[in-house]
Amino acid sequence: MKRLLLISLAIAIYTVLPEKAIGQDQQYTQFYATPMYLNPAFAGTSIQSRASTAYRNQWAALPKAFVSYNFAYDHFMPDLNSGIGLVVQHDRAGAGGMSFTSASLQYAYEIKISRKFSIRPALSFGFGSTYLDVDKLTFMDQLARGEDGVSTLDPDRARFAEKPVNYPDFGAGLLLFSDQMWFGAALHHMNQPVHSIIGADTRLPMKIGVHGGVRLKVSDVGAFSKRQYIVPAFNYQSQALFDQLDIGFYYEYDPIVLGLWYRGLPVIKNNGYNSINQDAIAILVGYEINNMRIGYSYDLTVSGLTPNSGGTHEITWSIEWASKKNKKKNKRRIMPCAKF
Question: Which member of 45, 67, 193, 274 has the lowest number of beta carbons within 10 Å of its beta carbon?
């Protein structure tokens, strides 16, 4: 049965690729644990230095469906009011060995516009690479012979690029924040680069993101209590014909963070399909100790894939550190953004 599923998935990839296809960037449930992937304006929003990683296994019950990895490092330079960052993203999809890799350098400049508010414009400069391991595809003549392990004689194999397709990729972002709220917007793939593996003029669509939230104090540190917050937040993204809204909240009870999220736009838009535009309900738990954070989230699929998807698992890890000089200098610099 598993072998049949792998063959079916390979056929589906082979069938779809020669035609015009529109794909979307990977979505992380813990998007504030991968903040620079969300918006380059988050580069340098830690007290000084930060490193983070993320692993996502989407629709785990499907064999070799979608697996993503993210690594990021950023650093704040208080003397220059600037943040710099590096983000590396890698996605693998399908039995056909399709993979996407990107890396970007980011720069953000922090401007204090009033006693309470600061703003951070940012730019992102990077490259992307798309690759398909054609040897892992099963072509029609292989199935006809009943021996999918035999090399194909199908002339369509020559349509696929044998080497990775590389392209430049640029973005920009903006972040407005105070000690209690934040609001950001980002543009990804502004140059809409060609990324086709069959030589067609297939461009990576521009992605627009808008996100924000507010931090509400429930209780402060006391003799018999710990600091508690409720953090309502949202994240809207639109790319080509597709869009989605994540809306939910975090409950922070130091050092534990709990989150509950809904992903979808069932009322506003259905993108032209005769089905409700909804994706998942996500639960999240995070733990923070000594400036190190570990998070786990599970997406319960509520779309048409519900019976077969197996849900989505995501694990994140991050750590922040600073010199004594920068800890003292940045002590009053408060970032209200969620950390998971």
Answer: 274
- Phi first, then psi, for residue 263 (nearest 5°) are -120, 120
Per-residue pLDDT of 35-50, as tens digits, reads: 999 999 999 998 889 9
User: Residue 161 carries which DSSP code?
Assistant: -
Structure tokens at 256: 């534990």
Q: Is residue 31 part of a domain?
A: yes
Range of the domain at 78: 2-329
Mean pLDDT on 75-91 = 94
Residue reference for tokens 């972040």: 175
Which residue carries 């391991």 as its tokens?
133
Residue 119, Cβ neighbours under 10 Å: how many? 16
* DSSP string for 259-285: EEEEEE-TTT--TTSSS--EEEEEEEE
Place of tokens 């779309």: 303
Q: Are 50 and 32 in contact (CB under 8 A)?
A: no
CATH number of domain containing 261: 2.40.160.40
- HSE at residue 264, side-chain half, CA atoms within 13 A, is 18
Q: What is the mean pLDDT of the chain?
A: 81
pLDDT tens by residue, 272-301: 656 667 778 999 999 998 889 999 999 988
Report the predicted TM-score, pTM, of the whole model to 2 decimal places: 0.83
Burial of 98 (0-12, 13-18, 19+ CB in 10 A): buried
Q: For residue 250, what are its two tokens?
A: 């975090």
> Rounded to an integer, what distance in angstroms lies between the CA atom of residue 147 and that of residue 20?
30
In a domain, 67, yes or no: yes
3-state SS record for 59-98? CCCCCCCEEEEEEEEEEEEHHHCEEEEEEEEEEEECCCCE
